[in-house]
Amino acid sequence: MITLKTGLPMGSGIHEKGSSRRHLFFAVEKSLNRLKTDRIVFYFIHRFDESTDIEETVRALDDLQRKGKILYPAVSNWAAWQIAKALGISERKSLAGFKLIQPMYNLVKLQANLQTKIQRVLRYYNNNCKDLGDN
């Protein structure tokens, strides 16, 4: 099973960072070629990109899934409100939603009740997404 994350800078080029449609397609193709495979199982957006509209990111993930490049969109290190907004867009526009969530967590930047907030979001959207932080 191939699981990849994107969002951190991968070079100095304009399309080698962020979660814009162009970067996501560029990064997926580059990874598929490098790994000599045709599909990624879980494709994580690792960092929230403030310069890209969430809907653009969600639509790009949906298109990558429809083209068979990824099986499941996933997200890591996003705040509960960012996840809620993305899932809301997915639901309203009938786009692929996140199937796996890795919560933002570290000892330096501990966020109180983050797990509870994410679980509320998933219940609200009746999402069958798996939260990796939920033991």
Walkthrough of the structure:
The chain is of the alpha/beta class. It has four helices and five strands, in the order βαβαβαβαβ. It has helices spanning 21-35, 54-66, 80-93, 114-124; strands at 3-6, 40-45, 70-76, 100-102, 130-131. A five-stranded parallel β-sheet has the order 1-2-3-4-5, with helices on one face. Strand 2, helix 2 (54-66) and strand 3 (70-76) form a beta-alpha-beta unit. Helix 1 runs parallel beside helix 2. The longest helix has 15 residues, at 21-35. The radius of gyration is 14 Å and the shape is globular. The mean pLDDT is 85.
Describe the secondary structure blueprint for this structure.
Elements: E1 3-6, H1 21-35, E2 40-45, H2 54-66, E3 70-76, H3 80-93, E4 100-102, H4 114-124, E5 130-131
E-strand count:
5
Radius of gyration: 14 Å
**Amino-to-carboxy terminus distance:** 21 Å
What is the helix content?
A: 25-40%
- Determine the number of helices (DSSP H or I, runs of at least 4 residues): 4
State the main characteristics.
135 residues; alpha/beta; 5-stranded parallel beta sheet; 4 helices; 5 strands
Outline of this structure?
The chain is built from 4 helices and 5 strands. With 135 residues, the chain is an alpha/beta fold.
